[in-house]
Amino acid sequence: MELCSSKTLRQVIDTEHLYTNTDRAWSLFRELTDGLAYIHAKGVIHRDLKPANIMIDEEDHVKIVDFGLATHVNHTERQLQNQQKRLQQVKFRMWFENIIQF
User: Fold this and answer.
1) 60 in Cβ contact with 24 (< 8 Å)
2) Catalytic annotation on 34?
3) Which residue range or ranges hold the Protein kinase domain (predicted)?
4) Which of 20, 46, 72, 86 is the most buried if burial means most Cβ atoms within 10 Å?
């Protein structure tokens, strides 16, 4: 585990008025989504993502921290979730087609 002596996203939002610098905000957002995609690909779900659990280092890179509530989703669970999503999509399509017919 590395030492991260930097600010939280909450501190950056509050003290540096991040909302006024859209280029920086989008850059941080892209890094955050890349980090989330990485941990999700490894089967990890954070479950407590909030600005206080996102660190911004001196070089303006994002670090996701505090995995205390994280859970691991195994391959079978992910397959079931994907199948469930597909089933929900089919149900929606059937419902939508019925509405169009009337």
Assistant:
1) yes
2) no
3) 1-102
4) 46
